[in-house]
Design a protein that fits this description.
single chain; eleven-stranded antiparallel beta sheet; elongated; alpha+beta; Rossmann fold
Length: 254
């Protein structure tokens, strides 16, 4: 069965050259009319594509023309149709962050990897953490804190010494970033349907920003996060290069 492709590329030379080569070989159509979106770039570009293509309802097959490419398949211009037909599908549901600023304005945005809170100045942030309406940590003094999905657990979460989560675990990772007090707190594992609330304590003196994937909201006083069950997007992976296998392998890297 033939399929139509829309090739979407980052601005790098490698990605643009790949787009030109693939378009010449397979033809291309508008993303709205394509059967599959082909994303050419790195992980940052894939995250951007997930957000940009959210309403199209098209599966996305990424090929790495960036640096790390954890969310991407390897780049090969040959046999693209056969790769798509054999690909394994993975459905991702994002987190929805609602951030309320000190001035009272609210901003809502999605995160497929993580929502992270970060101090804006030299002073540590002070954050109260509530889960499903119950205060679990009265005061976390830290550089920040993040809530990661399984797909995002190998990104910023892993760098902050958070756990790697299997894709089918239905768990979120709550991970502190350079916690000062309580010094020994290493975070928590939460069910994916948890509703998490971060209240910023003394935010005028100790300002905090919130970042949902690539979207930043500064000077916040409260952040509420829960999984958006109304949104699902499909990624396609080569069977020998599945995201689940790469997440498993990450746990055995010395």
């Amino acid at each position: 069965m033939s399929k139509t492709f829309a090739f979407i590329a980052s601005n790098t030379t490698d990605a643009q050259d790949a787009k030109e080569q693939l378009t010449e070989r397979y033809g291309a159509c508008d993303p709205k009319n394509a059967d599959v979106l082909i994303a050419l770039g790195g992980d940052g570009f894939m995250l951007q594509t997930l957000h940009d293509a959210r309403d199209l309802g098209k599966p996305i097959f990424g090929m790495n023309r960036g640096t790390v490419g954890f969310l991407m398949n390897s780049y090969r211009p040959d046999d693209l149709l056969q790769r798509i037909e054999k690909a394994e599908a993975l459905s991702l549901r994002p987190l929805r962050m609602t951030a309320t600023r000190i001035d009272g304005r609210s901003v809502s945005c999605l995160a497929y990897n993580e929502v992270s809170l970060l101090r804006e100045t030299r002073q540590a942030a002070k954050i109260r953490i509530s889960i499903d309406g119950k205060i679990r940590l009265e005061e976390l003094v830290c550089d920040g804190v993040l809530l990661a999905t399984p797909a995002g657990s190998t990104a910023y979460n892993l760098s902050a010494h958070g756990p790697i989560l299997p894709l089918d675990s239905k768990i979120l990772a709550l991970t502190p970033i350079s916690a000062f007090r309580p010094r020994r707190w290493r975070g928590a594992l939460l069910p994916e349907d948890s509703k998490v609330c971060f209240d910023i304590l003394n935010g005028e003196k100790r300002p905090v920003s919130a970042v949902a994937d690539q979207r930043e909201v500064r000077d916040i006083k409260k952040v509420e996060i829960e999984q958006d069950k109304n949104i699902s997007i499909t990624l396609l992976f080569d069977p020998e290069h599945s995201l689940a296998e790469r997440i498993l392998l990450e746990q055995f890297i010395a």
